[in-house]
Every structure is written in C-alpha cells, then in structure tokens.
Design brief:
Strand content: 5-15%
Order of helices and strands: HEEHHHEEH
Helix content: 40-55%
Structural class: mainly alpha
Strand order of the largest sheet: 1-2
Shape: globular
Radius of gyration: 18 Å
Distance between the termini: 52 Å
Largest sheet: 2 strands, antiparallel
Length: about 170
C-alpha cells in the first residue's frame, strides 16, 4: 500500500488522538468510576473507547469542551457505553455487580461522575455563555475557542502537577 492511498484523518480526529495520548500519559490507568485497572485495554481495538467525554460532544450541546482534558475521563469500554447509553437501572445493576465481584471493596461511583458533569456545565456557561454583551446567541470563532481551551487545559495540568508535588 502506498502512503497516498491512506485517507487523511479529519483534524478533529487527529486532535482527539493527541488529547487522548496526553491523558493516557498523565493519568493513572484506572477507571474514574470504579478504580478498575485499564491496562488490559491498551494496544487493543478498545483503547479509544476508554476515553469518555463527561459532557457529550455528540449532541452538540457542549462542543467547545471536546478537547478539554477535564471533560475526558478514563472508563472501561463497558462503563463508557453505560454512561453514554445506559439506563439508570442498568447502571445500578452494574454497580451491584462490581461490588459483589470485589467483595464489597469497590462500587461504581456514578454520583462522582454526575458531580463532575455539574461542575463542567457551570464552567462551560462561564467561558462560553450563550449571550455576550447585548448579543444573544453569540457564536464563538475557532480562535476564541482554541485560546480558551488552551488556557483551561494549561490551568488543569498545572493543578494536577501542583497536587502531585503536594503544593
């Protein structure tokens, strides 16, 4: 196969893969929800399924947080599917199953994930309000979005490094 035959990835997919790479290198390889190890999914077709957007990118409600580190958590591929498409009953059953398998040591902390979603929604409204000045339905241009996300990601990484150093 010649390199010219390989279709180019759209910029959003390239950007997402870079973001996922940074997240994988800077975070513990455990599920945000249960603490289960994720290393079994590395170098498998399920690898990218571990990166879950807390605020959905697919529904286009929070499009500007697609590349925000804080908006992406690590989950097992099954947990990711439950978070995106599962019912409340299915999530409760999964929590009970995890607790049973761990002998009561582990459960799925859906409340922690929902609390993070609430924090992110508040942050989204702060940085990307739907009205700016007297303009209702203000549309942010790409440069504005990139500058804001760059600033937020830098602040987020500095906070993580600070916590690791014990500042």
């Amino acid at each position: 196969m010649d390199i010219s035959e390989i279709p180019p990835l759209p910029p959003s997919k390239v950007g997402e893969k870079l973001i996922f790479s940074v997240i994988w290198k800077t975070r513990t390889h455990r599920s945000f929800l249960t603490g289960l190890w994720l290393r079994d999914f590395e170098r498998t077709p399920f690898f990218f399924n571990m990166f879950a957007h807390v605020l959905p990118k697919a529904l286009n409600k929070y499009p500007h947080f697609r590349f925000y580190y804080k908006n992406i958590v690590l989950l097992t591929p099954g947990e990711h599917a439950l978070y995106d498409q599962g019912t409340k009953k299915e999530r409760i059953l999964y929590s009970q199953e995890v607790e049973k398998q761990s002998g009561g040591k582990t459960t799925a902390n859906w409340d922690g994930l929902e609390a993070l979603a609430d924090d992110l929604k508040e942050e989204y409204r702060k940085y990307f309000p739907t009205r700016r000045g007297l303009i209702i339905g203000y549309k942010y241009d790409l440069d504005e979005v990139q500058q804001t996300i760059r600033m937020l990601n830098t602040k987020y990484m500095e906070d993580i490094l600070s916590k690791k150093r014990g500042d």
